[in-house]
Write a structure and sequence with these properties.
228 residues, alpha/beta, two-stranded parallel ribbon, 10 helices, 54% helix
Length: 228
């Protein structure tokens, strides 16, 4: 009789241990699954593109390139064919140092006031020139004044890129004001319009790079911003 009692007691202890172990194991699995499901997503990197129009400029483009190289930052340069023709070595340096080159037409004319044929020629002549100098044909265009015929991008098989923030650096000619105004407006995905024709613009651009990186922004080219 005692043997039977001990046998039953042993079975009950074994069953209880199994149940408790199973319950704890299930609890741990459920808890691990819940934690995995509720894990916070990785923080998205904020990106912004600095763009420069009207170059290359013999005096100021090299200073800007030096500053960007020191900071390991790439920008986008919308070049005028007339300037490329005059300073081909600068256009090649821009390309060789990893910056993106876009077309800004041959001359700084309002393309919307030209015939479609002439506007296309302003773009294609510049693209041909850039190909000769850099070995690359631009994919992106920015018409002077941000104005062109609606059919122009399709006719030239290019992507038109305008801007979100116009720093008006060419008019202000004030480094501190340009930096202050831009930082007030900038947000993830902003395309900033500047020029590499003035010392104040170069200084402002490099100060913006430093300030934006401190705020967690990554400086990228227009291509990286739009197509990535």
């Amino acid at each position: 009789m005692k043997k039977v009692i001990f046998l039953v007691f042993g079975i009950l202890i074994t069953a209880g241990s199994f149940f408790l172990s199973s319950h704890i194991s299930d609890h741990r699995i459920t808890e691990s699954f819940y934690q995995a499901e509720t894990k916070e997503p990785a923080e998205q990197i904020k990106k912004v593109a600095l763009t420069f129009d009207d170059g290359p400029n013999e005096e100021y483009t090299p200073k800007l390139l030096d500053g960007l190289k020191k900071r390991n930052v790439r920008a986008t340069f919308f070049l005028l064919g007339k300037q490329v023709e005059q300073y081909p070595e600068l256009a090649k340096r821009i390309s060789d140092e990893g910056h993106l080159i876009g077309c800004h037409a041959y001359e700084h004319k309002d393309l919307s006031r030209l015939s479609l044929e002439e506007a296309c020629r302003q773009i294609t002549d510049t693209n041909d020139l850039l190909y000769e100098v850099t070995g690359h044909r631009p994919m992106f265009m920015r018409p002077p004044y941000g104005s062109c015929q609606e059919q122009l991008p399709e006719k030239t098989e290019m992507i038109e890129v305008l801007w979100d923030i116009d720093t008006v650096d060419w008019s202000l000619r004030n480094t501190d004001q340009v930096v202050k105004n831009t930082l007030k407006k900038v947000e993830d995905g902003s395309i900033i319009l500047m020029h590499d024709e003035f010392q104040e613009s170069v200084d402002a651009a490099l100060q913006l790079v430093d300030a934006l990186e401190k705020e967690g922004y990554q400086l990228v080219t227009v291509e990286e911003l739009i197509l990535d």
